[in-house]
Structures are given as C-alpha cells and as structure tokens.
Predict the 3D structure of the following.
Amino acid sequence: MKILLRNLIIAAGMLVCLSSCGTLRTVSAASIESPKIYSGTRIDYYAIVGDTEHLEEKFNVRPPAYPFLDLPFSFALDTVVLPLTYPVSLYEAVFH
C-alpha cells in the first residue's frame, strides 16, 4: 500500500512538472534568436528571480507556473536534449 501511494505521488508530481515544463515549451517554440542550450533551466531561473525583461525579450513562451518545482526536471531534460540543441545553436551562431 505504501509503494502504491508513493508511486501515485511521484506520478502526480511528474504530471504537474511536465504540464508546465520549461524545456518542452522553449524547445518547441524556439526561433532563430532564442536561446536553446539549457533553455528550460534558464526560463525557470528568470521566473524565480523575477526578471521579466529576459522572459519577454528572449523567450516566446510564458514561464512555468511552479518554477521551483520545475527546475530539476527542466535541468534533467535540458541535459538529455543537449546533443540536439547544441548543434542547432552552433549552426545559428556560424551561419546567421
């Protein structure tokens, strides 16, 4: 019974984080000038600090509702997609 309850709590937490995941939002809405490397972690940081200038200027998405809760999951997902985002950023830096 304890294992089932623990698994339900973990699943509910993951659903909340994925529904407002900064990485998924920023990678899917990326444009030429937007930051791509660790973009979900960056948007969480700017939301935590309250730096709305960077949020509106650099990213085309709104920040997650719970940035403190989303930060470790965004960091992990940003690390997973780093082999995809780094070459794109490098290409943009060289050819644009």
